[in-house]
Each structure stands twice: as C-alpha cells, then as structure tokens.
Input
Amino acid sequence: MPRALTASGWVDAWTSTPSAHVVKAQSTADVVAAVNFARENNLRLVIKGGGHSYQGTSNAPDSLLIWTREMSGITLHDAFVPVGCDATYTPQPAVTVEAGARWLAIYDAVTTRGGRYVQGGGCTTVGVAGFIHGGGFGSFSKRFGLGAAGLLQAEIVTADGGVLVVNPCNHTDLFWAVKGGGGGAFGIITKLTLRTRELPTTFGATFGTIKAASDAAFRDLIARTLSFYADKLFNPHWGEQIAFGNDNTVRVAMVFQGLEKAEAESVWAPFTSLLTTSSKDFSIESPLSLFAVPARRFWNAEYLREVPGLALQDDRPGAPLGNIFYVGDSGQVGFFIHGYKSAWLPASLLQETERQKLADAVFAASRHRPVSFHFNKGLAGAPAEEIEAARDTAMNPDVLDAFALAIIGGHGPPAFPGVAGHEPDLGVARANAQTVGRAFNALLTVASGAGAYISEADFFDPNWKTSYWGPKYDRLAAIKKRYDPDGLFFTHHGVGSDEWSADGFTRLRT
Output
C-alpha cells in the first residue's frame, strides 16, 4: 500500500504519515506527468519504491507521492552497450530493471533462472532505485563491490519533466551523482541497467551464538573474535554480520561465496576448537551451524521455504508463492526507531597493534547497546578492481578502506501517534536513544570522524554532508543546482536540502 513503510517512525524525527495525493505510476510517462503537476502546482514531491528509508524520506504529509512499485519489469541482456557509447565500449552481460522492482524478483530472474549474479541488496524486499542511490551493499559486496559501481545506465526524469538517459557517455555528471548521491535529490530514476557477473559455484551461511561467563571473559572473546576475523574471514569470500551484545554474547550471522561446505567448515575449525577448549569461560547458546548450496538455489523461493527458520511466506490472500522474506529481517517490519547510528571502521584497526584498542572500544560500547559489525558494508579486503570501481561513485571515500560498517541502534514495536493502544512510549524511546549515543561515542574513541552510510545513518547527524559524502559533497551540490535549480526534489539531509526549510518550500539562502 502507498503509505506503508518498513519503519513506522523515529522518535522526535518523523512518523509514518500518508501523503495527501498519490500517483501509482505504471510508466515513465506517468512519472513525467506527476513531476510536471507537482512543479506547476508547487507541491512537495515524495518518491517511494520499496519504502525502506529509515530516515522517512519516502513519506510526508501535504505531499504528492509518486509510487513506482508497479514499474517492476526485468530484462536480461547478453551483450549490453549503453546508449551513445561508441564501438570501443565492450558489451557486457547486464539486466535492465524498472524502478519498482525488488531484489528477490531480480535475483529470481538473474540467478535462479538466468545463472548469473547481480550485486543487489541482502534484504530481498528492498527496491532497486533507492538501493543504487544509496551506493548499495549486498551480502557479497566484499567480492562484488557496490551496487552503484555496477550501474551501466539509468533513465531519469528531471525537475523540468525531461527524460534523460545517463551513462558513461551521456550526462556523465548526473550519472555519477545518482551512484550513491542519495535518493530523491536529482530526479526520479525510472529504469536502471546493471552489470551481471559470473555466478560462484556456491553460496552459504553460518550462524551461532556464544556467551561469555563474565565481563573479563567477554573482553577476551571480543578480542579473539576480531583476531579470528582478521586472520580467516577478512577476504572476498565472507560477508554479513557479527554482533557483540550487552548480555556478553557474540552472535554470528555470516555468509560466504565460492567455498564448498567442507572448505568453509575448515575456516571456522580454529574458532570452534577455541570454544571447546575454553568451556569454563564460554558457553554455546546456539551451536555454530553451516550450510552451503549451489548458487542458483540461494534465492530460489521454493527451496528457501523448505529451510527451517530461514524464510517467511507472504500470508496475504492471493500473494504469489515467490513472495518471501528472511526471518532475520522480520524484526524491521513496522518497527519504531529510537536511535540509529553507523560508522565505517578503517582496516588499520585490524592490525595486531590496534586490535586490543578496538576490542576495548567494542566492550565499552556494548555496555550500553549491542554493537553489530556488517563486514560486507566496507570494501577493504575486496578485489582491487571493485575498490577502484567504487572510487568512481559519489560515496564517501571512507568506504574504500573500511573493513566493516559498525551499526548501533535501538527500536520498539510498531507505533502510531493518536492510535489508542499503539502509541509510542516516548520516555522509553528517548532513553534508548541516549544509550545508543553513549555506545556510539564509546566506539568512536578508535574511529573519530568516520563516515556513515547514508541508507543506515543517524537522522540527527549535524555533520551529514561530511559523514555521507566527505570531499565529494561540493561536486554533488553543483550537479544538483544544474539539474534542479529550484529545489523541486527535497529530502531530509539530501544534497541541497540545507538551502531549504524542513518542509522543502522556503529557500533559506540564495
């Protein structure tokens, strides 16, 4: 439905509020008509695809919402050449997707049926356009880099109602800007073409939870886990998460590519041996389990439904059998955010001389809130060609040398102000927000000034320009003025938003 978002709100920031008007776009022509109508009638515009914006940028009262969900076409190409590129351009296997397509459907077309790989989102319900605008990490970004770096071409509706095809040969400045420059700032992407890759032989995952018997043991466990990661997992095979809890637990939820099950088990053998020989200090709350499957089955909905505890079926009447989502993502459905912060941690912290400092900072932060390391959301350890491709995007260069994105957050159940029995507990939410801040400050003692991932960042970050884009912001701002001089496209902490009031209607400076 048009008003539904992944989150129901963020305390003292925003709440899910239906737009006054909605255009359910089914074509680029529909988007053009809506943009022209908004411009001519001085309406606030909001763009929504999958609705996964934690910062609430895909909803606003008194706005015209352009909902692209019905634009979900997917076309595979054996040899794609961007429009306007000459014979020196090497044709590439690719996939063209419309803006409303979500990743599970794309993986089904590209991987399950097509036998190829495309760098997309780990959460299968994320929409493709917002993903590319944010830069785009997937579970296997340590091997295949940023989703935005694999963009070959995009069709975009600009503020004047024009339709531009942008690629390395046409409108190269706008092409660069949409690769990580943030959604809803430069125009409305209606179609994208992404590079596809040779599919690895296998994909797999390992899960488990270890609990330390004391604070001292937990400090030791943190240090040992970081050393194990640096020695065995800091490479293109491994991605996803390890979380350090305020209950003295380490929760492993890692994925891998290109390894057989026996090879992956041998990688983890030293760690499991450590746990066995240190049973007085550590207990196994959930045994480390590992599975590997032929890569073409990894996003096969029929297969995933048969794996216990992995996926949930869309239970709405008439929903296609292919509509599933991971159990691990279910906690985000409608959640009310109390606090959320992220930072890229430089790979230098994994050096032997620095690991103990990092472990101490993680322990200090975990006394307030759990700390989650998303290893696939930092490109250090990725192949050199993927790092170079990411360098030519609008993202903060901090991502290039980061071994992980650290995320600290807090949330409560779905909450809706004014709805009896479902209103947010503001006292609890604000208290949790403070603990998120204390935890984050403790972690940043070893990574001060670190950049943040725009798609998973703090709504209240006062240094958002530097956090999201670093030295690239000025170039993005110049491109914004070139293609949207009157600020039709406005989002919270989007490029150029500092020139307008919070509602996007009053220019603050000339």
User: Anything to note?
Assistant: The mean pLDDT is 91. The first strand starts at residue 7 and ends at 10.
